């Protein structure tokens, strides 16, 4: 029995076990499998592990997308999550190459995936508050927003949650060192039903204000000497 003799439901089930590259390669073999690849039902969940993957053509974005995860775990994350004033020329050059990759992709999601239910971003150092604001506005059904180690996320994202996160049930801003306790308290007060987690966030010294960082470090050293 040839694979193309399977019914549509079986083919979709088969494709669901394959990664994005394998799905694309299988779709190249015949027209029917290409049509299966293009079925929106196959693309309700997308996981990416590198910004490079976002530029490939081995997936589809559309209204069927419900769950999106972009988690970048590598030593390079540390490079991109260092504030600009701390970067050397090599680090700045490296980050410049993909500065807008994730943000541009998320803006595309805003326009094409209005039924998104969950978004997880980890190590996405170039994602801005404005990008998350647009997502909240364009994806009104979003229930889970998990941000980890996204250095440019600030209290503006927390404010956007209070204004546009009507469906939100879970908010995580772990290791987002530029949010503040005041911003977190505002979310707790205005959105008491949201499950909020901010591990190692507001208690960390923000890198966006070097003069404040130096002042706190000097005070800490002085206290230790006393």
From TrEMBL:
Residue ranges of domain F-box in the record: 9-46
InterPro entries: F-box-like_dom_sf, F-box_dom, F-box_LRR-repeat, Leu-rich_rpt_Cys-con_subtyp, LRR_dom_sf
Matching Gene3D superfamilies: Ribonuclease Inhibitor (3.80.10.10)
Keywords, alphabetical: Ubl conjugation pathway
Superkingdom of the source species: Eukaryota
Cellular component, GO annotation: cytoplasm
SUPFAM superfamilies: F-box domain, RNI-like
Name of the protein: FXL22 protein
Organism expressing this protein natively: Hylia prasina
